[in-house]
Amino acid sequence: MNYREEFNNLGEEGKKLPSGYFVTKKTAICISAFFICVIIGVATMFFLLPSPFQTCEEVVTDCTPELPEEPVLPTSEPREDFDERLPGIGLYPENYDITLTIYLDEEDGEDRFTFVGSETIYLRCDKESDVIKMNSRFLNVNVDSGNVVVTESDTGKEIGVHKAYLDELHELFVIELSSTLQVDQTYNVELKEFGAAIGNADFDQYGMYYQSYDIYGQTRWMCNTKFTPNYAREVFPSFDEPHFRSTFDLTLIHRDKRWALSNMPVKETTTLNDGWMTTSFDTTPNMVTYLLVLVLADFPKISTITKNGYELNVWAREDHLYAANYSLYAGSETLTYFEELLEMPYGLPKMDFVAVPDYAAGATEFWEIGRASCRERV
What we know:
Elements (H helix, E strand, L loop, with lengths): L2 H6 L16 H24 L7 H8 L27 E13 L10 E12 L3 E7 L4 E2 L6 E5 L5 E2 L1 E7 L4 E10 L4 E12 L1 E2 L6 E9 L2 E9 L20 E9 L3 E4 L3 E6 L4 E6 L12 E4 L3 E5 L5 E5 L9 H18 L7 E7 L6 E4 L4 E5 L3
Parallel strand pairs: 1-13, 10-11, 19-20, 20-22
Antiparallel strand pairs: 1-2, 2-9, 3-8, 4-9, 5-6, 5-9, 7-8, 11-12, 12-17, 13-16, 14-17, 15-16, 18-19, 21-22
């Protein structure tokens, strides 16, 4: 070792310093304080955290929040059971005599796209009853005194009406009587005024609905019906279920710029004032309500007589009538073919095909009643 190295190992007094690491007093105090804080923190964590030997049940029991009290449900009045069918009260319709006035034009003002009607239903009573229930949906029926009348068919004796009202929930029109209808008797139920809005084909193509079509720069209006399966109740109060069958006498009051078409041939037309007319039709065969149909339009037609002598017509708007020739030919040939195949005559006086501009069902065939409706593009 040289003298320089020896000098570096001497202290202030020339003494030799021991080897190793040295810290100042201040640094030692800081290190000691740090370790003390760590020890305190660890101890605090062990004190606050749950013991690993504590069971889950004890923790859940301590932390379960109090549940709110169960609300008290409101009580409702008991409701009579209803299976969406007319109750079996022993009344059966034998005939409907219906008159409808239909408003489609601007001249009709606030009445436009509405209809009003009246009807007489001829009922047979097979079971004593003091109430009459029939189907009605979306109809406004005038139930004021004198507008709902029930009489005996044979004698004309009036049966007192205690109360008449609409049960909208169950789609019923109910007539409560002051006396009981007797078995094997027939009765007339007269409703002098009812009506409703006509549906718009853009949104509603059931019951009775209207639509327009453009031709030669003009907008023209028409209306038609679709009662399948249970929409007749939207046009007239009725026993609108398929096991009820009856005949129908229909009269339409409409503007004379349109013709009226229904199941049977026209029986009579009458000219009224201010461009109105009535069209009455022959009585239909015995049938269900959903087979009744009506059309108000200004379409032209082409016609033929089938091999077995039945009138067959195809109705279409004027600018589409050229396309109806095939329907006329095919309809005539098909009707004759099935008559001969089944060895059964068609049996009704006419058959009509009507090409409706907008028809939701695509097509509806009413072979039993001599009319079919179809969409133009079917």
